[in-house]
Amino acid sequence: MSETGIGASVKRLEDYRFLTGRGTYTDDINQPGQTFAYILRSPHAHAKINSIDTAAASAAPGVVAIFTGADMEVGSLPCGWQIHNKDGSPMAEPGHPPLAQGKVRHVGDQVAVVIAETLAQARSAAELIEVDYSELPAVVDMNKALDGGTLVHDDVANNLCYDWELGDESEVDNAIAGAHHVTEIDIVNNRLVPNAMEPRAAIGSFDKATGEYTLYTTSQNPHVIRLLMGAFVLQIPEHKLRIVAPDVGGGFGSKIYHYAEEAIVTWAAPKVGRPIKWTAERSESFITDAHGRDHITNVKLALDENGKFLALKVNTKANMGAYLSTFATCVPTYLYATLLAGVYTTPVIYAGVKAIFTNTTPVDAYRGAGRPEASYLIERVVDRAAREMGIPQDEIRRKNFIPRDAFPYQTPVALQYDSGDYEATLNSAMKQADVAGFAARKAASEAKGKLRGLGYSTYVEACGIAPSAVVGSLGARAGLFESANVRVNPTGSVTVFTGSHSHGQGHETTFAQLVSETLGLPLDQIEISHGDTNKVAFGMGTYGSRSLAVGGEALMKAMNKIIDKSKKIAAHVLEASEADIEFKDGKFTVAGTDKEMAFGEVALTAYVPHNFPHETLEPGLEEQAFYDPMNFTYPGGCHIVEVEVDPDTGVVKIDRVTASDDVGRVINPMIVAGQTHGGLAQGIGQALLEGCVYDENGQLLTGSYMDYAMPRADDLPNFTCSNETTLCAHNSLGVKGVGETGAIGSPPAVINAIVDALSGMGVTDISMPATPQKVWQAIQGAKAAAE
Ligand code: MCN
Predict the structure, then answer these.
(1) Is 726 a pocket residue for ligand 1 (Cβ < 6 Å)?
(2) Is the whole-model pTM more than 0.90?
């Protein structure tokens, strides 16, 4: 293995600029003549706007312009995925204006934009805007929303966006009716606020001379924003719209979507004739970044007398918030219900999903997106079934695993898994977690008056989101491929333009490793460029842990084209047949001779083509590839969490976290470990700490870090992470994704561990986040019931 190629723990090349404060984030960019935007937002969750008086604000110092919905009549912010109801009719798709048109539907909805010389002036002027609202009742609770008493959108009956299903309900009901045992559980998957470290920001500008608009924005997928904003909202043709997503400080899904502020600053820039910068304050992020999760689910698992799963039935209500965010609709359907087989051979599965509008911030994908919700309910119901039937937790899982020789495995919920070995990850996790020593540790905890529990989660994930043909047939309004352009410069260095976008994942390192391995170049001769629609031909961006499996493969394809072309050049120069040219370690050789040409010599020749045969060999060395995979990739694994609970206070201490994951071939073990750590921190955060709470009027009670508990370093133990590998069967690298595994696998392991600790007292469930208060109350409830 080379020190810079596949499998090497190369330190992240991008970290020099980040660690020395030299990153360039959107808010760091300043343009000549720049103005500042402040968005006046609704303080109400639901209200009619009777009038907006901007006279006093317009006269305030420094104000350049003020616009409201009456000024900004543009297209609606689009939803990228159309779902059909059970009866075949399309989902309800109400409009989503960038600036409110007559009505506000959640706290934080955009009402007006003030553009001024300074941000302070814009903010002060906004306070002078008089908005006359008639407050309307708000609906926050999904069950109440379905009653239809209060409508978020007048034309959406019962606030129902769609009523969708997958599977044959009567077949599943029959299997449940005839089963030896049925375990039923009601599950809440708590709403989360994404909280990327860098808040969202956008700078819009317009060049009168060229007619070109430029938007700098905190995006995970600049080409998608160009498509959505250009074609649907502002009607700007692509060639006149440049989107740049420079360094982006984390997204976790929340920066996939096309947000109102991007359209507002781009639309307003030519009107004021100057660039306009908007940067979210943290409290704005809380109420306007799309939230995650928020499902309530009833689940039934039917088992035979030996603990074999016979059927799974799931009914889910999924909160969409007040408007459809860009990919909201596919999260509780195609990213969720299709994963309900998990790692098991459950023969029949039914999922019914109702997506519901409420007067809350829109909800969309957040790290894992649909797949954590699926794995949480599966692993909770399996845990409970094992307890009810007296089967050990590892045994019930082994009994029902898809065997390692059963791949490719067609699940009853549409997906076909290509590879996996769930026994291997379970065995490895159990060994590393020292499950054998648990009883002794439990006894030691008990001796100090503490309760100790061990929780399992064995999960699978569908990531590498693509292929176009599949997602298109499932309602996606876009293709899901990736592109890469490899430019070999005349002196042999390489610039890669990738449609993937790195915002913490380390692509500048791992993609460079692929180039180093394939073309035999040192890392300092390789540049990975991303995030600018004027540089990168096209791209679908980064989410769904797709960058390596889809973007990395596009890069491999482009490099193979470079090698093919280089062989032609080498054959010409070395006067050999192209078929005799071999390429290894950065050298082209003629088989069976000592004739050779270094990669750099070929590159130079490509740009100094003094004697190229005119008809058969073009000058230059640059290749473009698009890669559209055949399937998702399916990482999977086992997470085991051990907790110690203080019964007097309800405080849960996470003692051990062991993650054994199969992410296919590992390109950079250090980056893979880092991704796993980050995902685990977020999964444990969801399980123990984070919870988004609204009051019944639609006011966000957890609107700052005072009330929304993000995990911190001292909330987490050291993690034990390792990888077991089965290769992805349909990409050349054999890679699967890793970006979300930690957030998908860990939450049920945490809750199962707490339930295990308290099971002796008769506690059978704890909802997320398992705060000390909730745990303490469960203990008190169990004690009272026992008395
Ligand atoms: N990798 C590897 N070997 C593998 C798999 C991946 O070396 N077998 C490397 C990749 O080359 C890449 C990184 O691991 O450098 C993550 O790869 P991948 O799983 O393809 O995921 P993406 O790059 O597509 O990133 C998306 C994923 C998602 S969906 C969320 S959400 C998330 C995550 O990445 N958001 C993040 N990790 C994040 N990390 C940071 N710091 N910030 C975010 O916003």
Answers:
(1) no
(2) yes
